[in-house]
Amino acid sequence: MRTELDVAGKAIRLVEGDITTIPTDAIVNAANSALAGGGGVDGAIHRAGGSTIMVELRTRHPRGCATGDAVLTGAGRLPARWVVHAVGPIWRGGGHGEAGLLASAYRAAVAGADEAGARSVTLPAISAGIYGYPLDEAARVAVAAVATALAGATHVKEATFVLFSADAYRSFATALERLAAEDGSEPAAGEGSRS
Fold first, then answer.
1. pTM
2. What CATH number is attached to the domain comprising 166?
3. Share of the chain above pLDDT 90, in %
């Protein structure tokens, strides 16, 4: 099972676990458009990071954030310097531009990390929780969008998808394998099976 892919000398990696515990320069939050906190990854990031994140959101972004876009704050008590709050779409059957909005949210997240000067970023499965985006489709869109962002001019050298369950991990590993096959990519040095 593929767990890593080289993209223009930059790495996409997969891990299963709690995104709030993994040290990184920038952590991506699966935020809602009101930037009001919530459940899932959003709630976990606000709980772990503390109230300073919400204070900064309310001060700097009182009108929220459009779906498909992202905004940046400090990371509070998280093991990161910044949080990039990316807003993915609610799944409404697939015929309402969801794939484009989800891809845009991931590209905006990497762009936000880049603007902050981050070299590493951790990302969740945006929209694949309470927003109902089918996991396999969400993984395909996410991996392709992040690969496109990394292939461009960016400070970000490592993007790690931190996945909340074994099912999510498998979906993202499959998407990574498919992207590698489409691009004709070889496995990265030292790449192997999931341990």
1. 0.92
2. 3.40.220.10
3. 90
